[in-house]
Write the structure tokens for this entry.
Amino acid sequence: MAALAGMLQATGHRVTGSDENVYPPMSTMLQSLGIHVSQGYGPQHLRPAPDCVIVGNAIPRGNAEVEETLKLRLVYRSQAEVVKEEFIRGLRSLVVAGTHGKTTTTSIAAWVLDQGGLDPTFLIGGVAQNFGVSFRVTNSEYVLIEGDEYDTAYFDKGPKFMHYLPEIGIVNNIEFDHADIYPDLAAVKLAFRRFMNLIPTNGRLIAGWDSAAVREVVASMGSRLFTQLETFGTGEDAKWQIRNTNYASDVSTFTVFREGKQWGEFQTPLIGEFNLLNCLAAIIAADAWDLERDSIAAALRSFKNVRRRAEIRGQERGITVIDDFAHHPTAVRETLRALHNRYPKRRLFAVFEPRSWSSRLAVFQDQYARAFETADYVFIANVFDSRKVTEKGRALDTDQLIADISKLDRPAFALSGADEIIEQLIPELREGDVVAIMSNGGFDGIHEKLLSALKITS
């Protein structure tokens, strides 16, 4: 929503907004753009009446501004609908979807296409550090967008990515997620099947072949589907593969093979096999739009990642504090493995806030225990806004999670929040340690609080 506000402003519209809790990096981006955000919701924010009210998918009936919009019969639209009609229709669209890696892959592809001279319009669910923003509007015929499988609005319960008119669609992987709106994996797979069915016969589906669920969905669609199915992964049956991976230095290196033949060698500052697969998906998309291999390789070398994706927030007393958006157990596991590989001789502290709907519900209770096995110490915060969780199901049992992690011979602690975690964490830390803080929210400013506490105690 913040990025769309910026895009609309860039095309000449006057934009204002309302929210209860806007936090960095989006709050600072909106402030820098001069877009006013009212704190909280109220009918007065719709006076004078706007030409269009854009309703985010977190906004329910009963919201003061929704009710006023309906009473006054104002024009209202969903975020995804506005993106489609204002920024995609009639253009060549690359849509990046999948349970994991959407934001990073979209950011990589945006930089690769930019450096290759395509000058794409883009909309990303995070701040791409190469651009310093999460969106851009250009006059190019190319548009790149992160395709989210979460629902669109209270009046449109279909996935947002169903609006995005893909010429090229990337599906990195499919897992069960968003337990608040999807009852099971079958429902998630059906959503992705419908997305794949939007791709025209002259388009491309770039499918993550290491994901069994992706294979199953593709197989279910029959031979009609695609003249151009591009599969990618680590297995020999993928059309595109990464091989010869090395994560030991400050850059990760890998070789790309296409149909068994070496296609190119690449370097990236990103960590972890999952990020190399994100790079490979972007490489395939760039090749589909005829970019030169040398240009693709140069762009990957200079890619700076996304804010809040294994982002180093600071160092004090020789201790590195990292901010990561991971919240699904697979993302937590892969992030910690990647950090362990990047810092193999250093102790790794994992600090986790169950804040997304899927992490707050007990649906992944068992998987979370195994997700933290790479960490040397684990700190778990209370389930965020636990009162609302019980309306949708059983909440994650953090005490049981700590007990299960402790069985793996890992010191683990369940604490109330940021301040209590820092108080317990500080005495344990020593020079060389790495602290990975994982949350999809602001986590009460824990990163800066920790860095300040380390500076005071130095």
User: Anything to note?
Assistant: The first strand starts at residue 16 and ends at 19.
